[in-house]
Amino acid sequence: MKIALAYNLKPTSASVWDDTYAEWDDWETIEAVRDALATDHEVVLIEADAEVERRITQTAPDLIFNMAEGLHGAGREAQLPALLERLQIPFTGSSARTLALGLDKAATKRVLRQHGLPTPEGVVMHRSDQVCPLSFFPLMVKPLYEGSSKGIWGESVVLTPADLRRQVSRIVERYAQPALVETFLPGREFTVALLGNGAHVAVLPVVEICFAALDQAAVPIYSYEAKWLWDTLDRPLDIFHCPADIDAALADRLAGLCQRAFSALACRDWCRIDVRLDDCGNPAILEMNPLPGILPHADSHSCFPQAAAQAGMTYTDLIRRVVALACERYGLRG
Predict the structure, then answer these.
(1) By CB distance 3.0 to 4.6 Å, which of 21, 38, 151, 255 could disulfide with 203?
(2) Any idea what the CATH number is for the domain that residue 82 is in?
(3) Which Gene Ontology MF annotations are present (predicted)?
(4) What CATH number should be reported for the domain holding residue 147?
């Protein structure tokens, strides 16, 4: 089968302090996915830029392995899937609708609540002088339409109305989009990787984000600093523990919660879901990631590959499994 690997390549000149391309993939990741696909298939690389439709039409692939994040706009992750849906070309992962929904944190929260799923109280703020109905601090302030911890720093957890106004203003000015303000949950944080479709969605071993690995003065969140500045290949942080040290009851609650969320957003093939506990130990969904990161290096601290490894899967196994799930959906012979 001919598979086109669609991607966005992170510029090598981009500074780690510039988060414009934080969601894009480096060449090492693209090569790793290509090599995994090449064990069974003919693979063609297609960069998802302005020429992507012409390249896809000329290549005529049987399936596209989608890892393209897009650029510009709240629907950027849906840009390529929408094109593929119009061209009626099969692709891995979720639909354009689900990817657009997943990047809009407020819309995701509405869907979760409609399905009776817990998520922190939140409000969208378009201006720093807007009245915030959430009266209990601390609060968490983040960009409404970003991923990869973009716009989330230690200062994003605010303790006073003045701090809140300052962070909302920073997000509106820097990212040209509203801020999502949420109740800050003080408990443990987990991320849950899922593989499957319909009634057959497998939950991989849970990953805990252990904030004890951060500096003692650091705010206990997985911020941009923690993800991209402090945790490096040269000096990796021992921040991810998989499988998480949790009892069977909590593991079952997390699995059930995330499977229901997977279904609520109509996710396909795979998704990663971030969950945090409140002060009573009850889990709530923070974010959905239907286009999960898959860094291949063992020290890169990429949650999905780590969870897959604990489930007995190699990196190649993971990529092949995603392809198999997509082929099954479309009735293709992989």
Answers:
(1) 255
(2) 3.40.50.20
(3) ATP binding; D-alanine-D-alanine ligase activity; metal ion binding
(4) 3.30.1490
Confidence of residue 60 (pLDDT cuts 50, 70, 90): very high
User: Is residue 206 classed exposed, middle or buried when 0-12, 13-18 and 19+ CB atoms within 10 A define those classes?
Assistant: buried
Cβ atoms < 10 Å from Cβ of 231:
20
Tell me what the pLDDT averaged over the chain comes to.
92
Is residue 142 located within the same domain as residue 157?
yes
Whether this model's pTM surpasses 0.90: yes
pLDDT of residue 71: 81
Q: Tell me the average pLDDT across 145-169.
A: 90
Q: Does residue 234 fall inside a structural domain?
A: yes
pLDDT on residue 16: 58
Q: Does some domain include residue 29?
A: yes
Q: Where residue 74 falls among pLDDT bands split at 50, 70, 90?
A: confident
User: Does 14 reside within a domain?
Assistant: yes
Instruction: Check whether residue 190 and residue 309 sit in a common domain.
Output: yes
Is the model more confident about 312 or about 18?
A: 312
What residue has token string 């094109």? Answer: 83
